[in-house]
Specification:
The protein is mostly helical. The protein has one domain: Up-down Bundle (Four Helix Bundle (Hemerythrin (Met), subunit A)).
Length: 195
């Protein structure tokens, strides 16, 4: 097995693990009544672009080699670092879901008896699930030795983040008022102590 193939196999394992982590939370969330749904076209576009950049396009590359023009040789340290980033992404992704519990949703929704979650990774950043997507995009860029695929993952994350984050924080401010404003003052958005 070459390093390129090893990186691709690790990426596939990571994406499968991502889905295995999300599935039970998605099933449980369907059982909790939604009291406010602010899903919009930009929200849907952000989700679609993230799915394309972090799953569909890299899967196309892994299974077909397209676009080969962006290939570069994989290195052992790059694959190891990519594995570390992807592993951290999966850990944070699961921790975020677990902390949110019944409050989780894939889109901009407020659920019945929704509570402001400030525990686990939410004690450090307001949007750790986005942090996990950023770590996943960096892991993808390191595991898949192709510049085009690397940029697709980072662009997919950026579109999701910038199309949703403002509206998401607006909804939280409307729902939790001063409690959320105080939470904003003591935490950063996605990178602890920086942003």
């Amino acid at each position: 097995m070459t390093l390129d193939t090893a990186g691709e196999a690790l990426w596939v394992v990571g994406v499968v693990a991502w889905y295995i982590i999300r599935y039970p939370f998605e099933r449980r969330a369907r059982r909790v009544r939604v009291v406010r749904n602010d899903r919009s076209l930009p929200d849907t576009v952000g989700l679609a672009l993230a799915l394309f950049g972090l799953a569909i396009f890299p899967a196309l590359y892994v299974f077909t080699g397209f676009p080969a023009a962006g290939d570069y040789p994989a290195g052992l340290s790059t694959i190891a670092l990519g594995t570390a980033f992807f592993s951290c992404a999966l850990w944070l992704f699961r921790s975020s879901h677990k902390a949110l519990g019944r409050n989780w949703s894939i889109s901009l929704e407020i659920r019945e008896k929704h509570k402001l979650v400030c525990i686990g990774p939410y004690a450090v950043v307001r949007h750790p699930m986005y942090t996990s997507f950023l770590l996943m995009a960096v892991g993808q860029a390191l595991l898949l030795s192709n510049w085009v695929v690397a940029l697709a993952g980072l662009a997919g994350f950026a579109f999701l983040f910038f199309l949703r984050i403002g509206k998401e924080e607006h909804i939280m401010l409307e729902s939790f008022g001063p409690q959320y404003r105080a939470y904003m003052e003591r935490t950063k958005r996605i990178i602890p102590y920086l942003y």
